[in-house]
Amino acid sequence: MTPPFTLNNRILTLVASISEILGKLSLKQPQAIDLRLRRINQVRTIHGTLAIEGNELSEAQITAILSGKRVIAPVKEVQEAKNAIAVYDRLMNWHSAKEADLLEAHKCLMLGMIDSAGCYRDSGVGVMKEGQVIHMAPPANRVPTLMLALFEWLAKSDDHPLIKSCVFHYEFEFIHPFSDGNGRIGRLWQTLILSQWQPLFAYLPVENLVHQHQANYYNAINLSTQQSDSAPFIEFMLSMIQQALLELEGSSTPQVSQQVSPQVKLLISVLHQAMSRDELQQACKLKDRKSFSERYLKPALDASLIEMTIADKPRSRSQRYRLTQAGLTLQDELKD
């Protein structure tokens, strides 16, 4: 059975744009994603997919866990990170059209977290928001049949991989086949589908962007459910993929340092991990907030060299700034 979805002009435009960017990037490989960027992107991917589910580990803490270092944090959150690292490390060993591989991935992801890791749920489940049930998943006894049909469609469909990956992701979340870990596995499997089409997707931190636009992510899922058509979700995910690729394309542009001011270069050189506005201003040894904003912070943001960690709440007290891939490239140039 083919899942219900329509392809509107916006979706077709996004597919064309993404394909064009991929074509440009293919001419720059392997320089476009060097080993250092792959590691950074892996951290951002894992941080993003965990943060969506409420895990509060920072990128720095996940980097430490990835390096085998001890981290002072809740045991559950550390275990979630270790499991996610193991899953993304094994990503290319699985085949997206094999149901057994998805069950194995869930077993790995939820190891030590739930007793039913690697098994479909045997009871009803609903998605809650502010104390209200916003989605009641299909009954547990229908899950095996629904998942089998979804995998059969994935294997036989001749739709574009970009479309198939989004549709699978949405349908998976609609079915909600596991008692826990559905969001993480859904995002992982979309990455796997795309990676088997274009390998660079294995190192593209789309999950990080989804986290930054988390409210829109859930709104797209809910709207698709209300319309019985996954087009809203397809549009949202394609826009996230497009944005991630544009950032990657920017990071692979040579000699970024020739295009920015000395003030921005200073800011980039002192920015490590995620820093607050005050921390950055202090690191630049500046006292005038207005001057710092107009000559340092805003130009760096406008040039997409840095980004906000809470993009949908620019004035949040918890706001931090971090380097984009283009910013990381510039920072490396400044070290030479």
UniProtKB/TrEMBL annotation:
Residues 97-239 form the Fido domain. It comes from the Bacteria. SUPFAM superfamilies: Fic-like. Keywords: ATP-binding, Nucleotide-binding, Plasmid. One of its GO terms (molecular function) is ATP binding. The record marks 53 as: Important for autoinhibition of adenylyltransferase activity. ATP binds at residues 127-135, 180-187, 217-218. The keyword Iron does not apply. This is Fic family protein. It comes from Shewanella aestuarii.
